[in-house]
Amino acid sequence: MRFIVALVVSFALVWACAKPLKKHPVPFYVCAVALVALYFWGVSAGVRGEAWSYFQPLMQRCALAFLLFTVVMFVGVLGEGNPLRTHLMPIRRQLSILACIFACGHIAFYGASYLPRLASAFSGNLAFSLGLAALITALMVVLWVTSAQRVKHAMKAASWKRVQRLAYPFYVLTYVHLALLLMPSAVAGNEVAVLSIAVYSVVMGAYVVLRLRKAAADRLAEPAAAASDLDLEAAPA
């Protein structure tokens, strides 16, 4: 239940802060870095308490980063007139950057814990998990770098769009990675892990359905647009 409450509150903050995030993104990036630092301090200091029990899972399980990536992905597949798309479309780039900052906290935390086991990491499930994590991290870095306005403007539009399509495998692989991390605890009967996997799975299932629907609608729209162009060309001047 705490996990759901934390996600709902996080989304409410994203919705409420859309306009200031668009106008002044840098203070938000600084706050994100500060939250990552607070998380590492809290873990090292052994902080406990009600507020920490809401905050810590969002950071350690990469839930906050996944939430922001989810908003970015869903906004792209919603209909043009959808109020969620209208409100959040202008801040997709900023949300992506924030998500990458929070994801770096997750990567650093688990990277430090797995580094001592690197020598024995080239076999079994650990090798697969680390390999998947490395692939996701590489995709995230590419998407993060190309989210910068200066890099985007330096690239050809077609090339930039092709690179941004890497967001689809990145998002799906992130879900797989999180599900695999939570699966042992879920199988052991941990209610938070079970709930987390259920939430991630529902979100991913909804996204896949909406993405396939949009792809089908786009394919249907292409012949109609082509026919309209032909009609305009054939019309008398």
From TrEMBL:
GO terms for cellular component: membrane. This is Ferric oxidoreductase domain-containing protein. The keyword Transmembrane helix applies. It holds the Pfam family Ferric_reduct. The chain crosses the membrane at residues 26-46, 58-79, 126-145, 166-186, 192-210. Coiled coil: none annotated. Its main location: membrane. It is a multi-pass membrane protein. It is found in: Membrane.
